[in-house]
Amino acid sequence: MRVLITGGNGFVGRNLKVRLAEIAGFELVEVPHSAGADELRLAAATAEWVFHLAGVNRPQADSEFTSGNVHFTQALCAALSAAGNRAPIVFASSSQAVLDNPYGRSKRAAEDVLLDHARVAGTPVYLYRLNNVFGKWCRPFYNSVVATFCYQIARDQPISIRDPAARLSLIHVDDVVEAFIRLLRTPGAPSGYVDAGPVYETTLGGLAELLREFAASRKSLMTQRVGVGFTRALYSTYISYLPSEAFAYSVPIYADPRGTFVEMLKTPDTGQFSYFTTGPGITRGEHYHHSKVEKFLVVRGTARFDFRHVDTGERHSVTIPGGEGRVIESIPGWAHGVTNVGEDELIIMLWANEVFDRARPDTVAVKVMA
């Protein structure tokens, strides 16, 4: 499928191009905002889909809104009509199209041009009134407070907030792109105004607070709930603004004669992740828990896990070589120890279902094989 994209070097356009390049069967044709009539005519003649993403939102003069948003849209529709091309058109409009300001009026006028083209040519047109799109590759200090805050906080720079309670409605660029892809895969979808995906509601103060928590997590090791929804999308966005020299960071290493212990990540309500090393013949652990649970994964070496029921005295042992992908759990009420029974250094990944609390450690030292 031959896909024409205007504004391919813009924020949404770059993300769309990368996503389409991942999918077999698409040939991308880019038309810059500066394209002349001949270039536009040649591109429009064979396009099977059109993503009209080009536009002006930060001009030197208000007249550029009309030339950049309205006149360019008129030229695009004229080129398609001259070629007799009824290719569907996806238009990146703006939520400001309902507002009476120069930018909003120009976007609404561009929508009207496309709706007229759809009516005359019988062409499907899909209008997305996008609302503060954020995500990777959005330009900071331009028209996105998310991009600006991410850039500044990732570099430990101060940010400016006039009204922390100011409301924000945000949509993630990945959701926008996936909405576009769904259209490509849904022939005959009814044209008109279309929603791109979930809109996240927050405040300027809430946005700044969450971004600061992301930045602080490298020292505290405490991550936020970054697996779903807005927090996931914002965390992904924040990380994308880190300078390359900040891609890596260090965590504390606790060493003693038994080996090393390293905490990697802590969570608010699902425990923490660590790893430890142990030399040959050395035993670690030798304690029990009332409620805490741990999962161990032997990465390298060979470990013997010894257990003893602290009430009945029942015993159990299991030896696990590294690389087998076997997980063994500590069991509440069973004392347990881990001994390196191999000849090489033992490396074990560890997950505990709660973050270690020195005031209430739920860790009682006791000899396992006593």
Question: What does this protein structure show overall?
Answer:
With 370 residues, this protein is of the alpha/beta class. It is built from eight helices and 20 strands. The protein has helices at residues 11-21, 37-46, 63-82, 102-121, 145-154, 173-184, 204-220, 229-240; strands at residues 2-6, 27-31, 49-52, 89-94, 125-130, 133-134, 167-172, 192-193, 200-203, 253-256, 259-266, 272-278, 283-288, 294-300, 302-309, 315-321, 327-329, 334-340, 346-352, 364-365. The strands form four sheets. It has a six-stranded parallel beta sheet with strand order 2-1-3-4-5-8, sandwiched between helices. The model has no long low-confidence stretch (mean pLDDT 95).
